[in-house]
Specification:
By secondary structure, the chain is mostly beta strands. The chain contains two helices and twelve strands, in the order H-E-E-E-E-E-E-E-E-E-E-E-E-H.
């Protein structure tokens, strides 16, 4: 009879993850993003993301078209060069699904974005060397109708959850899957983490190009329009 190999405690994995990223003032990573509705793949995008303390991040989308999602610590910006428009909203009001990942540019405490953290016995990691943590998200939007891409629709906050796949031995983040009660989901796959890359501070400040219109409001609606 073979012995059952037990997983480390949830708190152990949480500490490994937080320790992995807490020591870096700046991070760079390659990402693949997949957006689904009712289990159907709607679109796939790819690029690089950058995180800098305190509370700044920049997502450079390279395919299938170029656009930028940037949080400068106070304001969240979504820029579509082809449309000559940029949408902005106060960072604290942003319900964009990437916003919780700003924890990588802060104190790196999962408790800041998770009401509850644990293992989900029904969700296995894609890699046998990884484990998957269940995170019940804080602060889900209660005003969105569930149709805008890139947002966490919020019928009931407790039903918006994220699954974080991390390497068991190191705590490195390899995948994040966010789902809500309406069947909308978004997945991020990460590779090639770089710690303290050389990037200018101005990279995390959005400079509105000449001739570009500024729109105040809904980032989710702007992204839906840019990515039909």
């Amino acid at each position: 009879m073979s012995a059952t190999i037990s997983k480390p405690s949830v708190s152990t994995i949480q500490k490994r993850f937080e320790a992995r990223y807490r020591g870096a003032a700046r991070l760079e990573v390659t990402f693949l993003e997949r957006y689904t509705e009712s289990g159907r793949l709607v679109r796939t995008e790819a690029g690089k993301a950058y995180f800098e303390r305190p509370g700044k991040m920049r997502w450079e989308y390279e395919a299938p078209e170029r656009n930028v999602f940037l949080v400068d610590g106070k304001t969240a910006w979504f820029y579509v060069p082809a449309d000559h428009t940029v949408t902005r909203v106060p960072a604290k009001e942003s319900t964009d699904w990437r916003t919780p990942l700003a924890l990588l540019a802060g104190e790196v405490k999962l408790s800041r974005i998770c009401i509850k953290i644990g293992y989900d016995p029904q969700r296995a990691p894609e890699n046998s060397a990884d484990v998957v943590l269940y995170c019940e998200l804080r602060g889900a939007s209660k005003t969105n109708d569930g149709k805008d891409a890139g947002r966490r629709p919020g019928a009931r906050e407790a039903q918006d959850v994220a699954y974080l796949e991390v390497v068991e031995s190191s705590g490195e983040l390899v995948r994040v899957l966010v789902k809500d009660s309406g069947g909308v989901g978004i997945e991020f796959r990460f590779a090639n983490w770089q710690f303290n890359p050389k990037v200018e501070d101005s990279f995390f400040h959005f400079q509105v190009p000449r001739g570009v219109a500024i729109v105040n409001g809904d980032l989710g609606a702007a992204q839906k329009s840019a990515n039909p």
